[in-house]
Amino acid sequence: VQEARKAGISVAKKGVQLWNVGAGLPLDAIKRGSITKWGCPYEISDQELVSLVDALGKNGSLERLDLSLAGFEWMQPIQREERSALSTLLEVMNGDDKVLESLDKLVINPSTNWEIPVAKLRSGPEKAIKVLSETPFLTKGGPGREEMHAMFELLCKNRNPDPGEQELELSYASVTKIFTDAQKTAENKQDKTAREAWHKAVTQLIAKGMTRRSHFKVVISAEVLRNVNFGAQELLDLSFTAEELKADFFTARELHEAAFQPFALKELGYTPKDLWEAEIPVKEMKKVGYSAKDLKGGGYTAQQMKNSQSYTLEELKEARYKPVDLGEAGYLIKDLRTAKFTALDLRKALMFSVQMIRDAGYTAHEMKSAGYDATHIRDAGYSAQEANDAGYTLTQMFTAGFAAGHLRAAGHKAGPMREAGYQLMDQ
């Protein structure tokens, strides 16, 4: 149990390792150089890994080596440094051509089972370029990410922990060219030569060995691969994570096309605007917990919201959808009133007539509060009594053309009416 905790693995997994140890690793045979082919049959423990690297460092006979099940880590980010092939086996091989000098094929990934052509890679840049040009990178039957990182580490010469300006420039210049060339092709998704050009450039980069590790990661990043027309599903199949794809500018639409559902996209950190651009329906957005306000900020239109019938009109009002947009979407004025849109809100929309607003049930008092003058009130069909109760003055109602008889019926006396402009004979 203590060993499992120390190694950061489950007790059951540690038990399997201990069981497998009973079979033993052929360390003596590897050291003596008495075998030409060997494959590690299980995930070895940290202690065994150290012993195996030591034995392989003394071997000159192996022609084919399969470490795909051994539990090495072949690319950054390294989870556990003690299992890093970058700082153990590959560093030893890089530093001394005598280490595994007969090795022709190396297998490191059980998913691809691709054989790294070690002997040809070590035979100089020209042969390395030739063999690397034969099989497209990151395709079925070809090298995956782990193999590409391993080949890079095997041939990398620019490893100075304290690099000078020239070493950095040699690395930076070639990587920058690949990056910028990929950017130029990003807009033209029909460019079938983009991948070929990228493959050729990366082949040169690996074979020459003058690129630094941190720079090499850029040329096989999801961002560059996207720009040379690798799709989201292709990269996911190559063990890229969804987090990597998002960080390197894959859109929500691209991941949605790769079968990611709205909740997963939300968890990845995509915004409502991203999901709107991915054409996620309003109903789906509500299911994953977005408010009407979230959707308004993301670009969802009033028409989309109405068609979905997922949110109430009150929620749309709270989300600051404007009456003009809601009206154009087909909401009735009486519905807007029920949702507590004011007469002023409707007046600002500049699409509803005074008559329409009155017919929807708005009172003369509400209309006055919205700034409508007495003429609008009269034209809309409000009575003199309603105008009077709303607070319009006799002068305002006279100017608007309310009949004297209607004002008398509303309780106004002759004196004030004369002062407002009415004549005694007015009806």
From TrEMBL:
It comes from Haptolina brevifila. InterPro entries: Decapeptide, Thylakoid_lumenal_pentapeptide. This is Uncharacterized protein. It comes from the Eukaryota.
